[in-house]
Amino acid sequence: MLSPVNVSLESLNLITLAPMLIPVIGALLILVIDVIKGGLDKSLYVVLSILFLVLDFGALLGAAGVFTKDGNMLGLFNVMLIDGLAILSQFIIVGASMLFIPLAMTNKRFHEFSYPEFFALFLFMISGFQFMVSTDNLILVFVGLETASLALYTLIAMHNRDKSFEAAVKYFTMGALAAGLYSFGAMVFYALTGSIEINQIATVLAANNYVDIGYVLVGVVFMLASFSFKLSLVPFHTWAPDVYEGSSAAMAGYMSIVPKIAAFVVSMRLFEFLIHSGVVWLEIVLWILVVVTMTAANIWALVQTDVKRMLAYSSISHAGFVMAAILIGTTQSNTALFLYWILFSFTNLGSFSMLWMSRQKHIPDHQVSDHSYDKFAGMIKTAPVAASIMALFMLSLAGLPPFALFWGKLYMISSAVTGGYTVLALIMALNSAIAGYYYIKLIVYMFMKEPVIGNDGHMYVSNATLALKSIIGFAAVGTIFAFVLINPLLEFITAFVYNSGY
Amino acid sequence: MLDHILSILIFFPALAAVFGFMIHKDSMRAYGVAVAVIEFALSLWLWFSFDNGVSGMQFMENIPLIPSFGINYILGVDGISLFILILAAFFTMIGIASLTDTPNVKNMIITLLFLQMTMIGVFVALDGIVFYVFWELSLVPMLYIIGAWGGPMRVYASVKFFLYTFTGSLVMLVGMLFMAYFFYQATGVWSFAILDWYRLILPESFQLWLFAAFFVGFAIKVPMFPFHTWLPYAHGQAPTIGSVILAAILLKMGTYAFIRFSLPLFPDASVYFMYPIAILAIIMIIYTAMVAYAQKDVKQVVAYSSVSHMGVIILGTFALNVEGISGSIFLMIAHGVVSGALFLLVGVIYDRRHTKMMDQFGGLAHVMPKYATIFGIMMMASVGMPLTINFVGEFLSLLGFYEQSHILTLLAGMAIIVGAIYMLAAYKKMFFGEVTIEENRNLPDVNKRELIALIPLVLITIWLGVYPNPVLAPINKSVESVVQLMHNKASTDEAKLRIPNVTGVVISKTTAKEAH
């Protein structure tokens, strides 16, 4: 006979769930509103989403306050783990989402935003990513990952172009494969250690002194492949440019930031303890993965003719650059990862928003694709402000000081130097130089070529509304004045990362 | 106000550039000249208030920027940087004043003012990262100037210029990060302050690697012999104003950085690499002089002669004694004045004939006597005739290196004679003989606007050639303390021997403390 389970409500520590539940409630509310009265304008849903994200952000601030006082929090049968990494990454996830959602307020009508389901799915996705980062239970990671990914596939498909369906299916197939690999990896670790909690796995493996190193490596291979798919590391990146091309520019910018930070946090939890325990093989494989991703993606980006595809490859390269932090695995490098990603998020979102703002419904004859380079020729003559802002984002992505991303690169390369990875530091620096070429290429088109006849500059801002302009303005100001923010950010992140033991 | 004069010097042009967007394009030139004159006056005021008796840093400012990572906004000026700074302010003024009819003149002037901000910033920054920020930022306006107003191959030239320099400086950045890390290991605090780094004595093996990393960044900028290929393209395609600023100021960033970073931070490595670098410098002098002789385009002659003289500056710097280094700093200023003037002069004839090919000219001395006279004076200065500004610098640089090696100095001296040959040949082709081409017969002589730009340069050339002391004395003072610092820090016997002990110099400790 089963004995009654006695669980006190306090021991569940339900407050740890608050940040994830807020977007879920928001999503349900949006669905309910739609059931009661359909056909409402998208602005309602945009504002509702923003409101719930603001609440979510507030809940995170609360959690951050508790963390600074009491340290790590466990909850819900010790499945939830709210540590510094979880809080920092949720800040990035929610913050980037807040920057993304106003981009729905375009001037032209785009199909996907007229459905309330878009916003509901969007909020479900955020909640999924939040679950994924705030646990070290491999099953909950999986649940979060799949919730978020399935929602994301649908969001991409809703863009309603032929290429979008192709992109969604491609992403879905690859995602399914990654999910399969992930569950295999988790299974191997469970078989080895009898646990699905990463800290338990680490303890058991350390206790028996890694006798089953062969099996550990098998598990690591599966996990590494799975996360490489999610992070689009070479050679698992093949889906990325097509998916970016197929989805709307705003969504592509979003995809280059939020899903990746979630995957970074999980790989940080999983791989760093292995590297620290002296799994040299993993260190070598990661080293190669990082270097190949950075370099190859940069070289592919050089030959692109479409700005969006170029930015897609550049995002891959940036992901490789940041993956180096997990390889180095010191407090400084983990801090650098978060710093880099915060700075990257508004720079990259800004540049994708610029593309989004210039999205045409019908492509003129001289243009090969949506955002081919020659579309931007002579932009300084027809739309000087937009051209200057775009150039600013490009220079920031190239790592030119004093713009935002330079500080991220600086700290990241410094962490490689401090961690003893001298060659890696040099490769990282030289890759920034290669990357300089394709960012400059766009500036060359904008500033040094003549505009196409008949182009009055209106098309660069054809989609602009106040909401879009404010987001871009916010990103531009953040990019220029980043140097003021670096010190408080650095101190905040270092404290959080250090206190969670990474 | 004097406390923050350096910040004002940096950010005044930038602020003026931002406000410049509001000015109507017809009034833009006057606005640009006004701003540049104010900036130049401020720089003269700085010179006036500068204490010649102090060897260390003056007018220091220190604002924490990223204290947890040791990055602070530290500025300061000493005898080494003072005159290059004034030169930068002066040439921006001359450049804007002499700007000929340019399309999009408003964008050009705004870009020039931004460029001025970065140039001044490089020469007064005393924090590695702040230095790096301005150093890299200076690429963007120049990229735009070459790429938007240049010749037919302007895009290629500007991108090549950008990528070359960008790559080099990223390697230097890694070097800086190592330097800060070693400082962290030694003291437990992160610091990018140059004056802090000066106190750090590194083992020779570290010095060699770090020297190499910094060398890549600086040598590409100078540009030294194997890395010089971007420069002829940049000069060939750049508009006159671009070439003038590039030759007069931007190239000096590299040689200045050698004196500010490489020598005092890595004295042992400097001695170790002295001969290889001197040999590179001599190859640079001779090879580019020969290339210059073969050119048909007068602007390329001036460009290659400019590279050739940069070789003498490097040679003087790596003499590692007071005469050599002082001479090389003086030569930086001289080279700025003379090559800047020569590029302006080439611009004058290009505006009239829209060609730079020397075989299109000939007999210009009959048609444009004033132009021929000024060109003649500058050409003489360029080949290093006594009583002109270049002579002082070249003589001191070679004298300094003579103490290290007689043979190499002799070779370098020979090369300067080659320099006389190609410059005189070019002058002969352009100015002497009969006027053979009909179009040249009615060319107008230099006009008032061009004279405003050229006359001051001629005056400076002769004034500092006859009486260099007002400039040389403060330079000497600061160089003595640098050399003394190097001597004190040197750990190998070889280095102690090569770097002389400057007796009677006390390195002013007060300024080093001010950095904290």
Q: How many structurally independent domains of chain A?
A: 1
Overall shape of chain A: it is globular
Biggest sheet strand line-up of chain A:
1-2
Distance between the termini of chain A: 45 Å
- The number of helices of chain B is 23
Give the overall pLDDT of chain B as a whole number: 89
Estimate the strand proportion of chain B.
under 5%
Radius of gyration of chain A from the CA trace? 22 Å
* Uncertain runs of chain B: 508-516
Please count the beta strands of chain A (DSSP E, at least 2 residues each). Answer: 2
By DSSP, the count of extended strands of chain B is 2
Strands across the major sheet of chain B, in which order?
1-2
Return the structural class of chain B: mainly alpha
Order of secondary-structure elements of chain B: HHEEHHHHHHHHHHHHHHHHHHHHH
Regarding quaternary structure, what we see is: heterodimer
Order of helices and strands of chain A: HHHEEHHHHHHHHHHHHHHHHHH
What's the gist of this structure?
Chain A is mostly helical and 502 residues long. Helices cover 73% and strands 1% of the residues of chain A.
How would you describe this protein?
The complex is a heterodimer of chains A (502) and B (516). Chain A has a two-stranded antiparallel sheet. In chain A, 58% of the residues are buried. The model of chain A has no long low-confidence stretch (mean pLDDT 89). In chain A, a hairpin with a 4-residue loop joins strand 1 (73-75) and strand 2 (80-82). Chain A is built from 21 helices and two strands. Chain A has 502 residues and is an all-alpha fold. In chain A, 73% of the residues lie in helices and 1% in strands. Chain A has one domain. Chain B has 516 residues and is mainly α. Chain B has a domain at 273-466. Chain B has helices at 5-20, 28-49, 79-97, 105-124, 128-137, 139-149, 154-187, 194-198, 204-221, 230-237, 240-265, 267-272, 274-294, 298-317, 322-353, 364-367, 369-382, 389-402, 406-431, 448-466, 469-489, 493-498, 509-514; strands spanning 58-66, 71-77. Chain B is globular, with a radius of gyration of 22 Å. The two termini of chain B are 21 Å apart. The chains are: A mainly alpha (502), B mainly alpha (516). The interface between A and B is medium-sized, with 33 and 35 residues.
